[in-house]
């Protein structure tokens, strides 16, 4: 017989004593090459897109614990309703029990933030600490649930963060209007963002800052709702397969 690689004549055996190939493996490799050549051509992006999609699915399925579709749907409905209510009535309305409740929850952590950051002995940081405090708590909640791989809890924390940021935007806007009633009946000298805008000399840009913060808030809430809707739709499709 002749070796299919080096073409040297030899006795029948499983491998070539001259070039060292294993005949069975060599034939298998040649067969795969022929199959690859005969396969229809794929677009340049097709393989990359498939691989990326598979990697994302594997990563998502590996990290997040499975959440019941009902829980996600209820949270999504609650978030969507709250966004609609805020869009109609504003981020804070004393006439709305729901909005007053949400605002007062943020207010508790806002006031706590003043006390916490006062520890550092910096007046500006103490004033800013109120807004930082009401943002820090949702971040802690989101991170805690993220580390537990609990998506519904993580989504709740993220949504709360951006809703609280919208509350901060309202306070920023009120630095000019001075319509909000401050705790204890304090006057404008106790208004956090009026003092901060004065300290940083930002009155030429305050309305732009308010708009940016407000847009970031709405986009953040919308993004987490879209992601939750995607997950609900995905689970619904899988349940019907």
TrEMBL record:
Domain of life: Bacteria
Membrane-spanning parts: 62-85, 126-147, 154-172, 212-229
Keywords in alphabetical order: Membrane, Transmembrane, Transmembrane helix
Name the record gives this protein: Uncharacterized protein
